[in-house]
Amino acid sequence: MKKNRYNTPVQQKKRAIAFGALLLCVFLGNAQTQPISIHEQGSFAVGGKVKTSPGSFDPIAHGAFNPADQSTEGQTLHGDHATVLYQIPVNANELPMVFWHGYGQSMRTWQTTPDGREGFQSIFLRRGFPVYLLDQPRRGLSGRSTEPTTINASTDDQLWFGIFRLGMGTEFYPDVQFSKDPEALNQYFRQITPDTGPLDINVNIDAVSALFDKIGEGILVTHSHSGGQGWMTAIKTPNIKAIVSYEPGSNFVFPEGEVPETIPYMGGALSARGVPLRDFKKLTEIPIVIYYGDNIPNEPVENPAQEQWRAAVTMAKLWRDTVNKHGGDVTLVQLPDVGLKGNTHFPMSDLNNQEVAELLSGWLKEKGLDKH
C-alpha cells in the first residue's frame, strides 16, 4: 500500500494546530455571535407620581369609550416614572451598570448600533456586568406624563447630523467612525424620540434616584444631557459609587461662590449652576470619568454645532479641576488624545465602540469597580 504523506503524525499535528488557530480566529472575529448566559432579566417602572382628579368615578356614567363623552372625575393617572430593562449575567460583577440616555434619545442608545452591531448593553454583559437600561420620565417607554405638552413635527435631521458631529449638512467628516451605509443613517435618525411632557430635570433625577434606591449600589453611565443630571442624582443618592459620563453638555454643578462665568459660543452660551458646598463635596467621594469624541475645536469656529461642544469641553475641564481641588477623583479623556480618532457624539455606538468599551473597562479595573 502506498504511504499517504499527507497523513503522517507530523502532518496531523500541523493540521490540528492550524485548525485550532482557525477556531480561535473565528471565535475572536465573531465574539458577538457567542451566546450570553443570563441569570435573570426583566423590566419594571420606578419612581413617578399619581395624579388624581377630584370627584368620584362612576363606571357607568363616566365609562364612555368616546373621548368626547368621557369624564376624569375621581380617576387617576400614573406617570412621570422611569422604565427600566435589566439583565444580570451568570457570575456577575458585584456592581451593576446603569445606562442613562441623552436628549431626544432612549435606551436604544445602548442596545445596538445603527449599523447593527452590539451596543454597550451586550458588550458589558459579556464582561460580566449586570446592566440596567432606562428610559427617563416623559420619554420613550416612559411616555405617560402628568403634564401636557405639544409635540412638533419639525424637519431637523440635518441639524442633529451636525450637533451629533457626524459631519456638516449632509457630508460626513473625513474618517468619521460612523457607517456610510445609508441604512445606518436611516436607523440613526429613527432612534430620535420626543419628550411627551415638559422636560423637568427634577422629575428625572427623582426617578433615577428611586432606581438606585431599588437596586442598591451601582455605576451610573450617562450620555450628553443626562451628564449634568447624573451629577445631581449622585448628590441625591449615596448608592451611586462611580460615574462614567460620555460627552456631558450642560448642568455642570459647582460650589456656590465658585461658579465660573458663562461661556459664550456661536449660537448660544453655556452656564453652570451652584449648589451648597456640602452637596458638591459628595461628588468628591466617588471616581468619575468623562469622555469626549473627535471634531471638537479648541478655538472658536463658525460652525455652531461644533462650537457648543467646544464650550462643553471648556466647562468640563473647569469642573474637573474644581472637583479635584476639593479632593475628588475626576478624569477627563478626549478620545483623539489616546489614539481613538473620528468619534461622534455617540462613542458607544460608533464603529470603534469595542475600543471605546475597552478604554472604559481599563478605568473600571483601575478604580476597583470590576469585582467578579
UniProtKB/TrEMBL annotation:
CDD domains documented for this protein: Esterase_713_like-3
Record's keyword terms, sorted: Signal
Origin superkingdom: Bacteria
Signal peptide: 1-31
InterPro entries: AB_hydrolase_fold, Carboxylesterase_BioH
Protein name per Swiss-Prot or TrEMBL: Uncharacterized protein
Organism, as annotated: Zeaxanthinibacter enoshimensis
Upper classification of the organism: Bacteria, Pseudomonadati, Bacteroidota, Flavobacteriia, Flavobacteriales
